Amino acid sequence: MKTLHLLRHAKSSRDDPGLADRDRPLAPRGRRASKRIARYVRQSGIAPELVLCSPSVRTRETLEAVRAALGDPEVNFVPELYSASGSALLGAVGKVEPTVGSLLVVGHNPGLHELAVRLTGSGDELLRARLREQLPTGALVTLVFEATSWPELELEAGELVGFVVPRELG
Questions:
Q1: Fold (topology level) of 2-169
Q2: Domain layout of the chain by residue ranges
Q3: Would you state the pLDDT for residue 14?
Q4: b/e for 1-14, b at 16 or more Cβ within 10 A?
Q5: CB crowding 155-164: b at 16 or more within 10 Å, else e
Q6: Across residues 75-81, what is the average pLDDT?
Q7: What's the predicted TM-score (pTM) here?
Q8: Which of 120, 9, 119 is nearest to 63 (CA)?
Q9: Contact assessment for residue 54 and residue 78, using Cβ atoms and an 8 Å cutoff
Q10: Which 3 state secondary structure label does DSSP give 99?
Q11: Mean pLDDT over residues 139-146, rounded?
């Protein structure tokens, strides 16, 4: 079994038009949303062994907000995750060592949304329908696979066991 968590960065700020996209920090709303997700992660016992994170400021800040709730995973900042397509994200996941049972990827849309939709094959139909529509900022998706290594993940083979959005967490 492999468990894949996909976390879209929280809402970023556009207050400084001079900043490069990669350098945009979280907005105050994004900071609050990240704290809600952190509480959810802690209460749900989500503890990935490895985190792959885009190196952008907003993904780093989102990860920092939830990191204490994750336990003590290894964290790798992967430049290729910034603006990656769903296929590129799947390729990065496929390079993870088979000994890792639970993985968290912190990234960006549209690639993260594309990956989540393409991997989901079963699970609660209401959650699946919501996921097909959008992956809002700060959303966390959890998929479980009957696989022994990460390169074995197949499209539509994941069971969607979790999909939460910060605004739904109060």
A1: Rossmann fold (3.40.50)
A2: 2-169
A3: 85
A4: ebbbbbbbbbbbbe
A5: eebbebebbb
A6: 97
A7: 0.96
A8: 9
A9: yes
A10: coil
A11: 98
